[in-house]
Amino acid sequence: MQIDAMETSTLEKDNQKPLTPTMENYLEAIYNLDNEKRVVRVKDIAKRLGVKMPTVTNMLKTLNERGLINYERYEYLELTDKGEDVGKEINRRHHILRDFLTNILGIDFDKADEEACSMEHAIGPATMDRLVAFMEFIQSCPRTGENWLDRFEEFRAHGKNTSRCLVHMKAFADELEDRMKGMETGG
């Protein structure tokens, strides 16, 4: 079987090394700039990332070679579909992690934003999915009783069904009422 040049090129791209955190940062920045300005320029990326324009140009060449952007020197650039998917996913991870750090752990927004940027590259998809489910759980279900973390596993197992949360809320309220009665009677 003979493989032509086009197939060889596609095979080489599919066997590429994984993206580095720096590459992901560039794709996220380009994705955000594209959504904000609709025109992405080298100087905008340099300003956003706090790097010099020649550094941006070198990275853009790499991203272009990997098929993640369409870039010609001195022209505007755009993400390919693949590049947009990566930029969008990194941006999603960043927001989820930042929200967790600020809303759940109470970390200052600027610090949380900085740390989310570091974390977004290291966390795997399964862990990210679990973190998202945990945030949905604590935002929609009561955090009451000693076993509320056990309830999280049940929440995940049953398709994030909040009606089950209501059942647990009622059970906790009944238990709390019994405890209060017991305290009143000295029991």
Characterise this structure:
The chain has 187 residues and is mainly alpha-helical. It is built from nine helices and two strands. It has two domains: 5-87, Winged helix-like DNA-binding domain superfamily/Winged helix DNA-binding domain (Arc Repressor Mutant, subunit A, Orthogonal Bundle); 124-187, no CATH class. It has helices spanning 5-14, 21-37, 42-49, 53-65, 81-104, 109-119, 125-140, 148-157, 162-184, and strands spanning 69-70, 78-79. It has a two-stranded antiparallel sheet with strand order 1-2. It starts with a helix and ends with a helix.
List keywords for this structure.
single chain; elongated; mainly alpha; two-stranded antiparallel sheet; disordered N terminus; 2 domains; 187 residues; Arc Repressor Mutant, subunit A
